[in-house]
Structure formats: C-alpha cells, structure tokens
C-alpha cells in the first residue's frame, strides 16, 4: 500500500491577530508567496515526538525536465517563509525543486526532546525528508547563518543524502575561545542571546546595525515593537538554549571535514560572523570548497544582495562545473593576502557581533 502523504500543516493562530500588525501583514504576504509559487505546507511527525513543518515543491509536470532538489535552511532570526520567499520564483524558474522547512523551535516546528544541538536539528530534518512520499534520494543543501551549522552537520551525518552544500555566512569554524579573544562585540553567550533574541527596541536597532552593511536609517519605534511582539517572543527559552549548545566548548579541532563539494558565500563587511571565519572554513575544507566574497554586503546577504545570492546558488546547483573565484575581480586573493596569518585581534578592527 503506498505511503500516505503527511497532513497539511495547521497554521497556528497568533494572539496578536485582533490588532493591526504590519509584521503580521508581511508574514501573510510571505506565506502567500509560497502558495502562489505552488508550494505545499505539510507537518511531518517524527518518532521522538518532534514535528517538522516544511514546504514541498510544486508537483512535477509529466514530461518536464528533471528538477534539482534543494533543501533551504533558514537562519536564526527568521523562519522558512521570511528567509526564502523572495527566492522561490527565480529558483523554480532555474529548474530547482525547493524543500523549505522550519527548523525546530522556529515557525511551527517543535520537539519535546532536550537536545538543542545542531546535530539534532540535522537529524530531525533528515528524518522529515526521508518520511516524505517520493522523497529525493539525494539533494543539495543551502544553509544561511545558523541554518549553515545545521547544513554542515547534515552533510557530515548523512553523506548519502547530501549531494553538495552551499554555506551562506555560516560561522561553523567558530570556537568558544573566540569570545574571550575579542573577535566579537559581545563578551559572552548571554549578551549574544540578548541581541539575537531582542526584547527591547534598542537591542533590535543594534542588531540591525550590525547585520546590514547599509542599515535602514528610518526605523519607527511602533514598527520595531510590533516586530518584536510577533517575531521575537516565541520559544525564547528554547532558542537561548540553542545558542548555548551552538557555542559552548566549541573547538575547530572537533569540527569534522565533509566530503561534499561546498560553496562558501560571505559578505565582505559581515559584523555578525566576520570574514575571518569564512577564510578559516575555506582553509579547513581545502580543495573541496570555493569561497565567494560579496562586496558591499554584511551578514544579511539575502536582504542586501538577493539577486547575486540567488545567482550563485542557482549556478552552483544547476552547473557544478562553474568556478567562482574570478567573480570578485581579485578580491578573494586580496582578502586572503590581507588576512592570512593575522591574529584574531588584528581581524577584530570592527568588533563584530556573533
């Protein structure tokens, strides 16, 4: 008997629906983008009680050319719809079949388990993908920031499933000693959590200033408070624990190498995960990786340079033979020359966040 498809995901009601909310309006617009692009939302229950909500690509048309399945993993400050809505139509037009989950404790995904590690997130996503009817045997994975940590563990733990990898501003080579060394603008994980999970307008303003190379100048307090109320108040305890599990006792020597071909994309002005971490990751992976440095971009590459990011993702997955080092007009070599052999304190001229 053929496997039954997962039930459509229930859309959780928010307690803020009775008041006008610009953030909820935008949230609905992003959700509508997914529906209008033909994606379908499902909820996949797992054996340990976790539930992964994810969007499936449109059903393949009979006789159409085979699509390239790609798993898109969002970052810490977003969920599936907020991170990936602007990219759906260009990726679909290029022949990609996007699978877009909410990570555990983001969006509608949840788990009763106590494990907060990126490895657990990766295991949940892999289990959800394998539970889908007609699931692809192999797929590319794109991870932005925190999603890149999950993508890296996914590639290491499930090499038969992950064909190739794109890591966007993902500081997987971060060490907990980097905090004490002064690489970041925060002194400990608690301070990082207060900024990455902002509960006050001043915290969100600081976060935006550090995330964007060219932050917006006009940010009305009423919009900021509304955004915090809608987007930053769910699962704060669990997300804080995710941060502690991400950074505590982290050492580069413990980071396994992966065998998949990997494209590393980094904003030249990233103040959240500084460029030194991208160079460190390139050295760690060696010849199986390519590093692209995007000029005039900070950590929020997906917001500041969406067309360029979309082009890089599309080309790397559709045509694996493409090489990217020349895209930066020599800036890759210049940056290597500039940072090679530098101490962390020399790299820390702008005191990035985390």
From TrEMBL:
Classification via Pfam families: Abhydrolase_6 (PF12697)
Transmembrane feature ranges: none
Source organism superkingdom: Eukaryota
AB hydrolase-1 domain ranges (all copies): 70-311
InterPro entries per UniProt: AB_hydrolase_1, AB_hydrolase_fold, Meta-cleavage_hydrolase
The protein's name: AB hydrolase-1 domain-containing protein
Source organism per UniProt: Panicum virgatum
Organism taxonomic ancestry: Eukaryota, Viridiplantae, Streptophyta, Embryophyta, Tracheophyta
């Amino acid at each position: 008997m053929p496997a039954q498809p997962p039930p459509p995901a229930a859309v959780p009601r928010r307690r803020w629906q009775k008041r006008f909310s610009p953030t909820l309006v935008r949230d609905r617009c992003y959700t509508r983008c997914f529906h209008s692009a033909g994606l379908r939302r499902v909820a996949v229950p797992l054996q340990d009680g976790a539930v992964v909500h994810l969007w499936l690509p449109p059903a393949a048309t009979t006789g159409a050319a085979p699509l390239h399945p790609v798993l898109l993993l969002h970052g810490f400050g977003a969920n599936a719809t907020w991170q990936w809505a602007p990219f759906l139509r260009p990726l679909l037009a290029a022949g990609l079949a996007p699978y877009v989950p909410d990570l555990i404790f983001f969006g509608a995904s949840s788990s009763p388990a106590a494990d907060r590690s990126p490895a657990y997130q990766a295991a949940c996503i892999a289990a959800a993908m394998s539970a889908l009817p007609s699931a692809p045997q192999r797929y590319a994975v794109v991870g932005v920031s925190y999603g890149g940590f999950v993508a890296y563990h996914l590639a290491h733990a499930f090499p038969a499933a992950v064909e190739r990898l794109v890591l966007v501003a993902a500081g997987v080579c971060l060490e907990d000693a980097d905090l004490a060394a002064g690489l970041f603008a925060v002194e400990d994980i608690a301070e990082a959590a207060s900024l990455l999970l902002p509960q006050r307008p001043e915290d969100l303003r600081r976060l935006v200033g550090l995330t964007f190379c060219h932050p917006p100048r006009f940010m009305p307090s009423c919009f900021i408070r509304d955004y915090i109320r809608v987007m930053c108040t769910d699962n704060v305890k669990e997300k804080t624990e995710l941060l502690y599990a991400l950074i505590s006792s982290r050492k580069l020597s413990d980071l396994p190498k992966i065998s998949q071909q990997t494209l590393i994309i980094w904003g030249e002005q990233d103040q959240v995960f500084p460029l030194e971490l991208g160079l460190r990751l390139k050295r760690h992976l060696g010849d199986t990786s390519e590093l692209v440095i995007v000029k005039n971009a900070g950590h929020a590459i997906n917001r500041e340079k969406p067309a360029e990011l979309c082009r890089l993702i599309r080309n790397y997955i559709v045509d694996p033979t493409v090489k990217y080092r020349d895209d930066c007009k020599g800036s890759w070599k210049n940056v290597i020359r500039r940072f090679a052999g530098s101490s962390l304190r020399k790299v820390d001229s702008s005191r990035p966040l985390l």
